[in-house]
Design a protein that fits this description.
With 291 residues, this protein is mainly α. Helices cover 72% and strands 0% of the residues. The protein has one domain (2-288).
């Protein structure tokens, strides 16, 4: 019975990861839209999923204030600091730092969640998965697009913001298991408040733009998928599954994202991406074999 529950949780996590895999392609199509505006509108759209999920019972949206603070910490805090990181450091390297979050989920799960233990296989699988993420992210850009100089002091705040964003998403994901149980529909509350905060950041920090009908359609897709629907699936997966295994599966996100970008742009699959796929899938297989 427990095995079946974990298998179902892994499928839910994979569905969320598949949605996140489309984020880069949608982001390219909406590259002219300021990021806080895009995030805010997408989160507001995504929050609407909670209506049918809750049977249109607003009571399911209500959570204690500490739980609400945790939800906003996760959804808004993560995206805010990720954008700060991407704007203040080379995007490729900042994204690499950001993808520490699956490894942090694996490492922190035994610390934050009772009943879980850390085994050397989990650490090894996490490191293999992170290696695959590094390869696929570096392979996703042209060599001349990668900023030279590595960890320059001018970019320190950007890297720090990306690292804190990774810490926020990993701890949010784990701590949802430590607060009193809440209905997954309450993710809609998290999304709406986070979306409004993102729109406030847009008003204060970004130029105004006019959106076309195509922009609104793509924003709707983003809200139903990678910046909305995925959060509901992720919550259900973490409530039912083994956080260590789900963290390892999360390394599929950059692999799927890069593969979809290659497919959309008509470019051929490269050997580094294929190698990264072998490493990431191997890491997930190794980690999920250990209880």
């Amino acid at each position: 019975m427990k095995h079946d529950l974990h298998a179902r949780a892994n499928l839910l996590a994979l569905a969320a990861i598949a949605m996140w895999g489309s984020l880069a392609s949608l982001g390219v199509a909406l590259g002219h839209v300021p990021p806080f505006l895009l995030t805010g509108l997408s989160l507001l759209v995504g929050g609407l999923i909670a209506l049918p999920l809750s049977g249109f019972r607003l009571a399911a949206w209500r959570v204690p204030l500490p739980t609400l603070a945790l939800g906003v910490y996760g959804l808004f805090g993560y995206h805010f600091l990720l954008f700060v990181g991407l704007q203040n450091a080379p995007p490729v390297q900042a994204n690499l730092v950001n993808y520490l979050w699956p490894l942090l989920i694996v490492v922190l799960a035994p610390v934050l969640l009772p009943g879980l233990t850390m085994r050397w296989q989990h650490i090894l699988a996490g490191l293999i998965g992170f290696t695959g993420a590094v390869i696929v992210i570096l392979a996703s850009v042209d060599g001349d697009a990668q900023a030279p100089g590595g960890l320059q002091s001018d970019w320190l705040w950007g890297y720090l913001a990306a690292a804190v964003a990774a810490f926020i998403w990993s701890t949010y994901s784990l701590l949802t298991r430590r607060v009193p149980h809440f209905d997954t529909a309450a993710i809609g509350t998290f999304a709406w408040i986070s979306g409004l905060l993102a729109l406030l950041c847009h008003a204060l920090m970004e130029p105004s733009v006019t959106l076309s009908l195509r922009d609104w359609a793509l924003i709707g897709l983003m809200g139903l998928g990678p910046l909305g629907g995925s959060f509901f699936l992720w919550d259900k997966a973490l409530k039912a599954g083994d956080a260590r295994h789900i963290g390892l599966l999360s390394y599929l996100t950059p692999l799927l994202s890069t593969s979809m970008l290659l497919w959309v742009s008509g470019r051929a699959l490269t050997w580094p991406v294929a190698l990264a796929g072998v490493l990431i899938v191997g890491a997930a297989w190794l980690g999920t074999r250990v209880r």
